[in-house]
Predict the structure of Recombination protein RecR.
Amino acid sequence: MPSPLINSLVEALRILPGVGPKSAQRMAYYVLERNRKGGDKLAYALQQAIEKVGNCAKCRDLTEAEVCGICSSPRRLQHELCVVENPTDVTVIEQSGIFKGVYFVLMGHLSPIDGIGPQDLGLDILKARLVEGEITEVILATNPTVEGEATAHYIQQMAKDAGVAVSRLAQGIPMGGELEYIDSGTLSQAFAGRKTV
Amino acid sequence: MPSPLINSLVEALRILPGVGPKSAQRMAYYVLERNRKGGDKLAYALQQAIEKVGNCAKCRDLTEAEVCGICSSPRRLQHELCVVENPTDVTVIEQSGIFKGVYFVLMGHLSPIDGIGPQDLGLDILKARLVEGEITEVILATNPTVEGEATAHYIQQMAKDAGVAVSRLAQGIPMGGELEYIDSGTLSQAFAGRKTV
């Protein structure tokens, strides 16, 4: 018969992705029995991040500054723009260290069924940047899903209208992948995109 | 290249049991991108629970009241006392609805190696209650582990000294369990505790 406050804590923890009723209860008891200091820190970190983290004015990535670290860095190539769906995609590409340009984060993909149109993805901001003339190449790195492809197609048209070169990340068999386990969609992309060696 | 505030949020989330670096990052981005309201609620619930939830003066269970709902309920048998290790154990027994008495929550078990002695488990409070005379039976429901057994043995002695009857939860094959998959320890307990039918 847990107390109302413990109940609300368990309920509140369930908003986190991947946390069901059992793990929420385990987390609540863990914090209250063994790590109240850590719980306090978590509450503070949540409030601080929610209050202060907004979107970068240039690329829409999450940041507490007006313009994010990547957009304001003099060491990044400001004329190469990589368009991704989510902030996590930026993290993944940054970890690979392969890309030296800047990003534009859509925070989703076009999805008319959910009422998500170009405005919601900040495509007006992107258009203005493309027309401005600083960007010379747009690299489309949206997910290879139906919605991701549709979004990429839309941006491709936009960039062409503004006279900016567009490319799309190569699709094919992933490194270490075995043919036996590759789905037919990926396989047909790999055949279509084959290169003479 | 996430911002410092996002980094601290990811770090803070990792205190939760079962949350590794990847899920912490997923949770942080989920809250910031899609559910700031839920995040605010979580921060508030954490602070409220940490600030106000303490231990019941009678049974040591977690509660925001001076004495918990079970201890202060007139419908519970105040002379039957079930001793458990953790608040979660209380929840499990309450869900079964089998027990109508009151609890004593040790908040752990005797573990000299970790410096956890009788004082840390509130056994002085328990002793005082046993000597008082209101309790007529102590039901030991500590876990069937080495430490749980040692703790049960200690309390058993204490109750006997105070002239209070003591019992221990039956050990044996769980319902729906198949002999094939039962460990030998449980099996030997089941043989030792066999009943004539």
